[in-house]
What does this fold into?
Amino acid sequence: MDDWRRSLCPCPSGTFASGHFSFMLILMMVILTPSKHLDAYLVTGGNATAVQGETVILPCKLSDTNEALTQISWQRRTRGKPQNDNFFTILSNGGPHFVNGHDDRFTFIGNLDEKNGSLKLASVKLWDEGLYSCIFTLFPTGNYRTEIPLNLLVPPVIQVEDKLPVLGDEEVLLATCTADGSRPPAKVTWLKNTLEGKVRETTRSIQHDNGTTTTISSLLGVPTREINQHSVQCVVTSPALPEEEKKTFIVQVYFSPTEVNIIVGSEDSFQCLTEANPTAEITWTRSGQSLPQSQVRVDGSTLQLLSKSSALNGLYKCEATNRYGTRHGYIYVHLISGNCTACWTLFGLLLSLNVIGATVWYLIKNRTNEGTREGRQKVRTTSNESEMAVAEQPT
Ligand SMILES: *[C@@H]1O[C@H](CO)[C@@H](O)[C@H](O)[C@H]1NC(C)=O
Ligand SMILES: *[C@@H]1O[C@H](CO)[C@@H](O)[C@H](O)[C@H]1NC(C)=O
It folds into this structure.
């Protein structure tokens, strides 16, 4: 009796307890529904919310009754089946069965004796979202029903995309962060960290017919060296996600190789250095001649001379290339005899003076244009044993 009283009387139970009130109410009921206890049994359902792919319970119970329960049936009006669809019946004498086609994802988890009609739905999909009706058929008073709304949450697919900005001085799109197909719409923002004030974001969203929304946040900024390699994070929040999701992104500004420097290492090695993004590929060649394979070793950006033979003499070129451009550096190697220590010193000095481009290129030009004698002598005055020169030449 408790349940129907509550369902009919909005007044506090204290007031209700008074005999006077009870009498009035029963009298009213008798007047309004003289022949049937219609609505006298309360069917309790619920409001179900599920994340796509998970399992959800559609709860349904009938309050105590002494009448005979002949069947429980389920109807639905969903995104996938917008027409009212009778899909599941549990008969007192025949057990549960599907009405319009089988769907393994539904399982009856109730109990006829307990007047429990609950269903379990596994791998819930967006098209399952809608209104489910649970109907108890009693003898002799007929049908009692309740409606259970099923709400779907769809977690977004999150992706950060590098928009490959090339070094420049005007604002461009650096990256986008997309939360695809979220229900309800996801919130997408950027944590700018060290780039606060140097980059900005704009957000837009696209609503899909199936009730999901795609939200795209764009990160914009001037593609300078200063912002290169700084880390930012895209933060996505959605009720469909167990917790906010953060995707770290390293801002990349792309540029062709900058000036090429050749550094002399110990052990007669030359390292070709340049700055580039993405990292430049280095190739060593010798002008007009092939590299003497057995007497040099190329290891990444380093060229190493394995002997001091005059067969190694020549103009060596280091080429630095990435998809945005190419730069060259040159070194002239001239070995006269055995041991050479002082000559590397000459080389290092030229490098640190940062006049390599001019000075040394002349040496090479002199050598080529005016014959070798004069040029060679010039250098010999600095180093008695051998000579070498470096030049950088822009492409
Ligand atoms: C059910 O829950 C959803 C989400 O929590 C809410 O938006 C909706 O209004 C509720 N519906 C009812 C009938 O309570
Ligand atoms: C909803 O529609 C969008 C766009 O057509 C699609 O990309 C997405 O996969 C759909 N989502 C679901 C859960 O069906």
